Amino acid sequence: MAPVTGTLVLAGTPIGDIADAPPRLATELENADIVAAEDTRRLRGLTRALGIHTSGRVVSYFEGNESARTPELVEALVGGARVLLVTDAGMPSVSDPGYRLVAAAVEEGVKVTAVPGPSAVLTALALSGLPVDRFCFEGFLPRKAGERMGRLREVADERRTLVYFEAPHRLDDTLAAMAEVFGADRRAAVCRELTKTYEEVKRGPLGELAAWAAEGVRGEITVVVEGAPETGPAELDAGELVRRVRVREEAGERRKEAIAAVAAEAGLPKREVFDAVVAAKNAAAQAPGKTAQSPGNGKGLT
């Protein structure tokens, strides 16, 4: 028979309103042998708000010590302890510490369960007004502009609704990049301070949202973006073909490779995409105050 082990409990915590705390959360906090918290100070504030006290040992478990502390917690679990994992807000492991501990506990045959709780991902998705039947969570985008554009380009044709977390001081740059890659008319929703006093859901095309965010936005941010439309080759006009080539070039691809990739995506001959690119370049060159770039220079189209 397999040895009897302890239990790892992943507990959801409020993302804003303390009244959203799951009823089981208080019980688990009071009875756990060990409470592993992303921020022990935030944990003390939570227990005060709930009017309870923890009886077990409280340890910190955050990004900086996650790798080092995981073996210690697994040892306790194998020894029969009930370990409760909480993060600052929402469910552990969802863009928060927890994955390493869960994987290690499973590897050791430890029982893993959860106290379901609030989730910014699902809350924002439900409030967005966008399709919810199929979606994917992309977490935080890279901070560097080039890497961010590359990551967005990877899902430019994703038909499922996309959900992102973002820091308020990077929101304007992120929305502008999304408008460039996905198209300024792609619908989206910026969900700010969910369940808190100043909750706000701003809906609209990505281009408009980028202009709005340029004025400055505060608070915890979740962005929901409509999936790519179901378009066939005949529905991709020359302007859309040129836009897709430009996005790939700006992400670092050579023009020849970008044209080939876009042609493959659209199911069109490479010559047709090439002709659209050349026509757009010629039109830009003839426009007042515009200067054409030489073919094959690897730069974006003008």
Automatic annotation (TrEMBL):
GO terms for biological process: methylation. Residues 7-210 form the Tetrapyrrole methylase domain. Its main location: cytoplasm. GO terms for molecular function: methyltransferase activity. It is an enzyme of class 2 (transferase). It catalyses: cytidine(1402) in 16S rRNA + S-adenosyl-L-methionine = 2'-O-methylcytidine(1402) in 16S rRNA + S-adenosyl-L-homocysteine + H(+). Coiled coil: none annotated. Signal peptide: none annotated. Keywords: Cytoplasm, Methyltransferase, rRNA processing, S-adenosyl-L-methionine, Transferase. Gene3D superfamilies: Cobalt-precorrin-4 Transmethylase, Domain 1 (3.40.1010.10), Methyltransferase, Cobalt-precorrin-4 Transmethylase, Domain 2 (3.30.950.10). Pfam families: TP_methylase. Its EC number is 2.1.1.198. It is found in: Cytoplasm. PANTHER family: RIBOSOMAL RNA SMALL SUBUNIT METHYLTRANSFERASE I. Catalyzes the 2'-O-methylation of the ribose of cytidine 1402 (C1402) in 16S rRNA. Belongs to the methyltransferase superfamily. RsmI family. This is Ribosomal RNA small subunit methyltransferase I. It comes from Streptomyces bikiniensis.
